[in-house]
Structures are given as C-alpha cells and as structure tokens.
Amino acid sequence: MSVTANPTGASQPEASGPPDFDALYQRHSREVWALVYARCLNSHTAMDITQEAFLRLWREWDHQQPILNPRAWLLRVARNLAEDHAKSAFRRYGTSSPQAMTGVEAREAPPLERLALEETFGQIRHIMQQLPQADREVLTFRYALDYETEQIAELLGINTTAVHMRLSRARQRLAERLKAQGIGQLP
User: Fold this and answer.
1) What confidence category does residue 3 fall into, taking pLDDT thresholds of 50, 70 and 90?
2) Rg of the chain's alpha carbons, rounded to an integer?
3) Which of 17, 32, 155, 160 has the highest count of CB atoms within 10 angstroms of its CB?
4) Same domain? 117 vs 171
5) In CATH, what number is assigned to the domain containing residue 175?
6) What range does the domain containing 155 cover?
7) How far apart are CA 42 and CA 44, in angstroms?
8) Which of 54-58, 126-130, 147-151 has the lowest mean pLDDT?
9) How far apart are CA 129 and CA 136, in angstroms?
C-alpha cells in the first residue's frame, strides 16, 4: 500500500486494487445478487454473500492475482458461497425468524392489504423453495430481473432454446403448485 499526500499536506493511504473496481461493482453486483437470491430466497443473505464475493475479488487483485474474466469469477464464487451457506448447520436447522424471510421490501401499502400481500408472497416463497434450484434461477433472472433469454443463456452457459424450455417448464411447475395451494390471482 502506498501513501500519498492530500492537498492539506496530510498523508493518507492510497487504495490498492484496480481503479475500476467501483465500475465493476456497478456493472455486476445486481447480477451476482440475483444469482444468490435465486438460491437462498433471502435478500439480506443475498446481499451479504454478494459483498463477500466482491471482497474476495478485491483481495485477489490486492495480492496481484490475475483474473481474466471478473464477471465469471464473481458468479462462480457467489454460487459457491451460496452453496456453502445452504449447507451450513445454521441454515439447515432453521433458526431464522419468520421476519427474516420476508424478502425484498415493496412500497408501503395499507396495513390490511400489506398483510394479505405478505401472506401471499410468503406462500409463493415457500413454493419457490420447493422448486428445483434451476427453476428458481431461471425464473428469478427472467421475472425478478427482467433479463432477456440471451442474457440468461449467457449467464447459465446454455443456448436460448434451452432457456425457453427451462422457463416453460419452470412456469408450469410453479403454476401447478400455486393452483394446488389455492393461489389463483397474484396481486
């Protein structure tokens, strides 16, 4: 770490790492977060894991380790961190409060409407947890993040036809489970 003088004459440490780290974070953090969120269905946990992935990237660059494709590296690390989190004893034995499972917060609605929405979204999250991981990923990318099939194909390393097929099957499985739970119309 080098030291530079600021205009007042005081020394301050100069940040190490690539000068475009902020731009890299702006460009990829949403995508990394979405991948993790699709796996754990908790926005706070997804943000923690996303930040950990970027911290690890920073450390790699700080140790002068070359990373040719930071986006792919981040997605791989985030996916591994999410897997580790899912396997942890804390997660497995469920010591989280129900409030921690509320997911992404929306605009304020009237109290009764908010309660109805929370109940419906809670049922949907429960059903999403029962879906295969591949279904959750593709549905999150398409509907939560509004990614086009070409973007999803690139992220998942498959062709667009496979994305269309996965989306169709995931929607069908989700609809069947929603219907079985009595959730007909979503808010």
Assistant:
1) very low
2) 20
3) 32
4) yes
5) 1.10.10.10
6) 105-182
7) 6
8) 126-130
9) 8
Q: Which of 71, 95, 119 is the last residue of a domain?
A: 95
Note whether residue 77 is domain-resident: yes
**Residue partners of 182: CB distance under 8 A and separation at least 6:** none
In this structure, are residues 42 and 100 in contact, taking their beta carbons and an 8 Å threshold?
yes
Place of tokens 């990373």: 67
Residues 86 and 136 in one domain: no
Give per-residue pLDDT as tens, 88-125.
756 566 655 554 555 555 456 677 777 777 887 788 78
Choose among 109, 112, 137: nearest CA to 40.
137
Q: How far apart are the first and last CA of the chain?
A: 53
Q: What is the distance between the alpha carbons of residues 44 and 37, in angstroms, rounded to a whole number?
A: 9
Tokens standing for 57? 């990237």
pTM value > 0.70: no
7 within domain boundaries: no
117 exposure class (CB count in 10 Å sphere: 0-12, 13-18, 19+): middle
Q: Give the whole-angstrom CA distance, residue 109 versus residue 137.
A: 28
Bridge partners (DSSP) listed for residue 12:
4
* Residues found in the chain: 187
Among 68, 95, 122, the domain boundary falls at 95
